[in-house]
Design brief:
Its main location: cytoplasm. By secondary structure, this protein is of the alpha+beta class. The chain contains two helices and four strands, in the order βαβββα.
């Protein structure tokens, strides 16, 4: 399970993993209060990408990335439903 040290590398790899097969990709956010760390994991059961941080500035980046992925998921979902009804 590769753990990325820089946010830019992780976000590019995670987006590529999601776009390769959106139906299999999963995103998990995990916060540990004891050490104040936030972990984001993106997986498709074959590849698992992990990024951990305890920096407050990275939380905004993770939040923005997570909402971007959610928008992609909704857009794909509504697009396929629209295609099925036509």
């Amino acid at each position: 399970m590769p753990q990325y040290q820089t946010w830019e590398e992780f976000s590019r790899a995670a987006e590529k993993l999601y776009l390769a097969d959106p139906m299999k990709a999963r995103v998990v956010l995990k916060y540990r209060h004891s050490d104040g760390s936030l972990c984001i994991k993106v997986t498709d059961d074959l590849v698992c990408l992990v990024y951990r941080t305890d920096q407050a500035q990275d939380v905004k980046k993770i939040e923005k990335f997570h909402s971007q992925l959610m928008r992609l998921m909704v857009a794909k979902e509504s697009h396929s439903v629209a295609m099925e009804t036509d």
